[in-house]
C-alpha cells in the first residue's frame, strides 16, 4: 500500500514549529490502515497504536502542541513506494526503539526514539546517531502484507 498521508503533533512556541522532533507521528495508508508512533515513558522505546493524534493542546506561556502534515517534508520516493510491512527496529538490548516502513527492496522510512525525542527519516540517518551498537530491523512486523 502507498502512504496516503503523514501527520504529526508538533511543539510550537511563539509561532515557531519544531519539525525535527514531533511529539507523535501518524501514518495513514491507502487501504485506511494507520499507525501512530510516539515515545514511551521509559525515554528509549516507542509505542505504536492506531489512535488519532491528540488535538490542539494549549500550554499557555509554555507553548502548544498542534497537528500538522509532514507529507510534504518526506522524500517523494517514500510516498511512491509500495510499503509491504512495518517492522520493529531494535537496539542492542532488544528494545523497540523505532519502526521501519519497508517496500520490496529496502527500508524506506524510519520513525525512532533517540534521547527521548521522536525522529523520522531514512535508515542511514537513524543508524548514524550514536547508539553505541548497530541497530537492526527485526523480522517481527506490526503490519505485514499491506499490498
Helix/strand layout:
Elements: E1 3-13, E2 16-17, E3 24-29, E4 34-39, E5 46-49, E6 57-58, E7 64-69, H1 76-80, E8 85-90, E9 96-102, E10 107-114, E11 117-121, H2 123-127, E12 136-144
What does this structure look like?
The chain has 147 residues and is mainly beta. Helix content is 7%, strand content 49%. Strands 1, 2, 3, 4, 5, 6 and 7 form a 7-stranded antiparallel sheet that branches. Strands 11-10-9-8-12 form a 5-stranded antiparallel sheet. The model has no long low-confidence stretch (mean pLDDT 91).
- The structural domain count equals 1
Number of strands: 12
Determine the mean pLDDT. Answer: 91
The portion of residues assigned to helices is under 10%
Low-confidence stretches: none
Supply database-style keywords.
mainly beta; 2 helices; globular
Summarize the structure.
This protein is mainly beta.
Amino acid at each position: 500500500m502507498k502512504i496516503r498521508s503523514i501527520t504529526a503533533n508538533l511543539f510550537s512556541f511563539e509561532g515557531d514549529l519544531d519539525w525535527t522532533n514531533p511529539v507523535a507521528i501518524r501514518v495513514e495508508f491507502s487501504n485506511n490502515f494507520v499507525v501512530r508512533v510516539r515515545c514511551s515513558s521509559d525515554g528509549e522505546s516507542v509505542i505504536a497504536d492506531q489512535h488519532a493524534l491528540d488535538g490542539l493542546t494549549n500550554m499557555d506561556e509554555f507553548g502548544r502542541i498542534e497537528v500538522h502534515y509532514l507529507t510534504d517534508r518526506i522524500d517523494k520516493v517514500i510516498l511512491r513506494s509500495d510499503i509491504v510491512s512495518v517492522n520493529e527496529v531494535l537496539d542492542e538490548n532488544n528494545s523497540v526503539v523505532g519502526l521501519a516502513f519497508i517496500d520490496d527492496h529496502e527500508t524506506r522510512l524510519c520513525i525512532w526514539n533517540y534521547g527521548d525525542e521522536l525522529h523520522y527519516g531514512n535508515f542511514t540517518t537513524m543508524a548514524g546517531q550514536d547508539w553505541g551498537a548497530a541497530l537492526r530491523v527485526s523480522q517481527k512486523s506490526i503490519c505485514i502484507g499491506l499490498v
